[in-house]
Design a protein that fits this description.
Number of strands of chain B: 4
Structural class of chain A: mainly alpha
Radius of gyration of chain A: 17 Å
Order of helices and strands of chain B: HHEEEEHHHHHHHHHHHHHHHHHHHHHHH
Oligomer: heterodimer
Strand content of chain B: under 5%
Distance between the termini of chain B: 86 Å
Largest interface: A-B, 13 and 11 residues
Number of strands of chain A: 0
Number of helices of chain A: 3
């Protein structure tokens, strides 16, 4: 861990990443880009876990384990999401999310 | 002590047979399913005879009385410590006798149906229903408590409904089955209320407890008298109402003649020999309560029975449908049994009426089943129910002719056939009790002989009609039961009922009373003679009589317009002034409320469904906005 960097820096970075992810998720029309935005959100959370673990409980490792789990889940989620996107592409010949709107009233 | 545990199979076997034939019947060959049903019934007939033999001849008597044996008992619903509904088997003289009656007639009808129903659509369905009926009837007979009896009582009602409506493509059969079910169901409502009052006051359903002379029913003195009759009397009258419905007594007799729409073997089994005597059996089962705690109810039994027998006998003289004549004759004979119970006392020679009633039940089952099966053979031969289309059949149907003649002589009470003995005992019992009832029944004996021989002469004598093909004798499967039942009709009068089936289960001395026997034979012969003169050859006498007594003839021919009265009361009064307003309320108020709720829901959902646009990012936006709002709320505003 980098010594001398205060915790606020990590939190500011995580917040920026988080809202960048939210912004990307809400504004991008490409499903792949949306998936990438989701990854940004997850990783910002990981940074938070690591930072708090380091600064609040330096002798424990729960935060690290948690971020490991998040990474694992994110990986499998990406696999599933890409499979779904491929199927959507086959069905609609597009991955623009605005055209994938059949499930409605 | 004899072990009667095997009697459980008398109940289980027909039920299993019903399940087998009902569920897998369509996969079997019709002939096989018929044979299966018949074999099953043969086995339980054997078991019943075995049980009867062991019960009457090898089981121990206490103080010369047959004991009530509970062969099997399973507690089913335990309401309180004393009040529980069981399913079990109770053996006592009347139930064992009924086992014999039911299984014998049912077995004969099964064999007969193999021939009669051959080639009919739904052959295996027919046998499945017959098994269901046998099961229900046997369950009714051996019931250990009044509630079990009620359950099986309804079951026989259902199987009767199913069998009357066997030809369900025929509108008249459907109408008749509905009528039978609704009328008896209506009467059963009284039965149920009676059971509830009775068990509420005595805290038990159990027959052995109820009918014990020191039991809660007979020693019961509490309760408030209503219209001058005690609680016990009212409950017994209500219970009797169920019996009136099932046994087709006035005023609930209207379903029985219509029930003749069913196949003839069914009429023989259900509507002549077994189910319709359930009402008699019910009164006999509860007899000690009637005799000691509710004598007024017993009077009701006697008068209803006598009136019904007279009414039915008069109607029977004018009917032309062969099965309807027999139906009214059944009603009349059951009236006899009811009347005999009504005039009976309890114990020893006082219980003569009870014994006579059971005796007549037994002999009647034999000869009436024989008459119906004979009628079935006739219908089989000429393809018609109408006496006007029959005549001179004795040449073509020799076996049917002889057996039918035996049955007619039996019902007319000619010695030494069985009907003579049982009818004689009934008349004797009536004479000792009530002269009016005796006079009525005496007259009915004559009328009975007249209408039975009117039937006999116009079917078997007289000139030939135009038959589509020459009538031919029925196959052996149909004639053998006729012969067996004829033997039963002839000899069952020799069974010493006064030793076996009596009100207090103890034998007593009974002998023929010549003062009754001779006049009753004479009036029987008179009836036969009249029928001989009028119907042996086609004469103008019947028509002349009909025109002379135009109005009374028309009344009797139209069954005294009882059906029309019912129709008027239901259609013009109940339907119009009670059912129609209720239907209006149901349709507009109850349904209206429900429809209103549905309408509002639909309106609301129509408005809000636009939110579900299918746009993923719109959802995401709403979700995240909501999450942020909640975060702000919890962090800054929630203090």
């Amino acid at each position: 861990m980098i010594t001398g960097v205060p915790v606020q820096y990590f939190l500011i970075l995580a917040t920026l990443m988080f809202f960048a992810g939210i912004y990307g998720f809400l504004t991008r029309r490409n499903l792949i880009t949306m998936l990438m935005a989701v990854e940004l959100i997850l990783n910002s959370v990981n940074i938070n876990f690591m930072a708090f673990n380091r600064f609040l409980y330096p002798h424990k490792m729960e935060g690290m384990f948690f971020s490991l789990f998040v990474i694992a889940v994110a990986a499998s989620e990406a696999a599933v999401a890409i499979a779904i996107i491929i199927n959507i592409y086959r069905r609609f010949a597009t991955i623009n999310v605005e055209n994938v709107n059949e499930m409605k009233f | 002590m004899v072990n009667f545990g095997y009697t459980i199979w008398i109940l289980l076997l027909p039920f299993l047979m019903f399940l087998l034939l009902g569920l897998a019947g369509h996969k079997l060959k019709p002939k096989l399913s018929g044979l299966l049903g018949t074999t099953g019934l043969g086995i339980i007939t054997f078991l019943s005879y075995l049980a009867a033999y062991q019960y009457f001849f090898t089981s121990e008597k206490v103080d010369g009385a047959f004991q009530k044996i509970t062969a099997f008992n399973g507690v089913w619903l335990k309401l309180t410590e004393n009040l529980h509904i069981d399913l079990g088997i109770l053996l006592d003289p009347i139930s064992v006798m009924m086992l014999i009656v039911v299984t014998t007639v049912s077995f004969m009808v099964h064999i007969y149906s193999l021939g009669y129903m051959k080639g009919e659509k739904g052959f295996e369905r027919f046998f499945a229903f017959l098994s269901l009926f046998s099961f229900s009837m046997l369950g009714l007979v051996v019931a250990t408590n009044i509630f079990q009896m009620y359950i099986f009582w309804e079951l026989v009602g259902v199987s009767s409904y199913l069998l009357i409506g066997f030809y369900y493509t025929k509108p008249s059969a459907v109408r008749a089955s509905k009528k039978a079910f609704i009328v008896t169901r209506f009467a059963d409502m009284g039965f149920l209320i009676g059971i509830l009052i009775l068990s509420f006051n005595t805290k038990t359903f159990d027959f052995v407890t109820l009918t014990s002379l020191t039991g809660p029913a007979i020693t019961y003195t509490g309760g408030v008298a209503f219209m001058g009759l005690s609680v016990m009397t009212w409950s017994m009258i209500l219970v009797y109402m169920g019996g009136v419905g099932k046994s087709a007594m006035f005023p609930f007799h209207i379903w029985l003649p219509d029930a003749m729409e069913g196949p003839t073997p069914v009429s023989a089994l259900i509507h002549a020999a077994t189910m319709v005597v359930a009402g008699v059996y019910l009164v006999a089962r509860m007899f000690p309560i009637y005799a000691f705690a509710a004598p007024e109810a017993l009077e009701v039994v006697a008068y209803v029975g006598a009136f019904s027998s007279l009414l039915a006998a008069i109607i029977a003289c004018t009917q032309t449908d062969i099965k309807r004549v027999l139906a009214y004759s059944t009603m009349s004979q059951i009236g006899y049994m009811m009347m005999a119970l009504g005039v009976s006392g309890y114990g020893g020679h006082n219980g003569l009426g009870f014994m006579a009633s059971m005796f007549h039940l037994f002999t009647h089952a034999m000869f009436k089943a024989l008459l119906f099966l004979g009628a079935g053979a006739i219908i089989h031969a000429v393809h018609s129910n109408h006496m006007t289309e029959m005549g001179g059949l004795r040449k073509y149907l020799p076996i049917t002719h002889i057996t039918f003649l035996i049955a007619c002589l039996t019902i007319a009470g000619i010695p030494p056939l069985s009907g003579f003995f049982s009818k004689d005992e009934i008349l004797t019992a009536a004479l000792h009790h009530n002269k009016l009832l005796f006079a009525v029944e005496y007259a009915v004996a004559g009328i009975t002989a007249f209408y039975m021989f009117r039937l006999y002469f116009s079917v078997f004598w007289g000139s030939d009609r135009h038959y589509h093909h020459t009538p031919h004798e029925a196959p052996a499967t149909m004639t053998v039961p006729l012969i067996i039942l004829a033997i039963g009709s002839v000899f069952s009068g020799l069974i010493p009922f006064n030793e076996l089936v009596t009100s207090d289960s103890m034998g007593f001395e009974a002998h023929l009373e010549m003062a009754v026997a001779i006049p009753s034979v004479l009036i029987g012969l008179l009836g036969i003679g009249l029928a001989f003169i009028m119907y042996k050859k086609e004469t103008a006498i019947p028509d002349r009589l009909a025109t002379t007594f135009k109005y009374s003839y028309r009344w009797a021919y139209n069954k005294f317009y009882v059906d029309e009265v019912y129709l008027f009361v239901t259609k013009n009064i109940i339907f119009r002034y009670i059912s129609a307003p209720i239907a209006w309320f149901d349709r507009h108020i109850v349904d209206g409320t429900m429809n209103g709720i549905a309408f509002v829901t639909q309106l609301a959902s129509f408005r809000i469904r636009r939110f579900q646009s299918g746009q993923l990012q719109k959802y995401g936006f709403v979700f995240i906005t909501g999450a942020i709002m909640l975060a702000i709320l919890f962090i800054y505003l929630w203090k």
